Amino acid sequence: MIRLDALTKTYGSGSAAFQALRGVNLQIDAGEFIAVMGPSGSGKSTAMNLIGCLDTPTAGSYRFHGIEVGALDRDQRALLRRRQLGFVFQGFHLLARTTAQENVELPLLYRGSGRRERHALARDALGRVGLAGWEHHVPAELSGGQQQRVAIARAIVTRPAVLLADEPTGNLDSERSREIMALLSGLNSEGITVVMVTHDADMAAYARRIVRFHDGRVVPQEAPAGAAVA
């Protein structure tokens, strides 16, 4: 599904240039659950941004289902992002005065979906993350774990092929973190490819494969000791 070949990303120029990625090679198959780990500045977030079409590489190749993403223009990349990719972040990024259902409907609104379709798909997505009956609650009425569930529902409401999660449990306690990871594992079992950046080895253990970054490069890959945790 995703193939990175000799991918390079450089910020700045001349003496101020910083090479965030130094020829990254990585393949992610459809249906995988990947945990991306590495110290700060290792390049993992840069790679996530490139995969998510939030940034463009300096050199190298990024193919999505065989399509060279670097050859796409800005509008085409935005279309790929809207139709194929879902995003979950450490911060929930919910609109404070907007209900859970309205927050989840936002990507559908940008896509131009009709009111009836938006309502049906948002309710379905909230049900999938265990929040049926919470549609009309605003974020202040929800726990941190529930807010992250709303954020995940918003990410999957467009039925993306890939879910990109950047430290999705970073703001949660241990129990809520395990709940979110069990949810991500369940979505993966339904066929969604999950690529997750995390610093937490316990959370990475839910993945089927760990990819480690160091100094802008991928180091040899491994299977996590606790793979396939329920």
From TrEMBL:
Keyword Membrane annotated: yes
Top-rank lineage group of the source organism: Bacteria
Molecular function GO terms recorded: ATP binding
UniProt KW keywords: ATP-binding, Cell membrane, Membrane, Nucleotide-binding, Transport
Database matches in Pfam families: ABC_tran
InterPro entries per UniProt: AAA+_ATPase, ABC_transporter-like_ATP-bd, ABC_transporter-like_CS, ABC_transpr_LolD-like, MacB-like_ATP-bd, P-loop_NTPase
Gene3D superfamilies the UniProt entry points to: P-loop containing nucleotide triphosphate hydrolases
Protein name, as recorded: ABC transporter ATP-binding protein
Domain ABC transporter: 2-229
Membrane in keyword set: yes
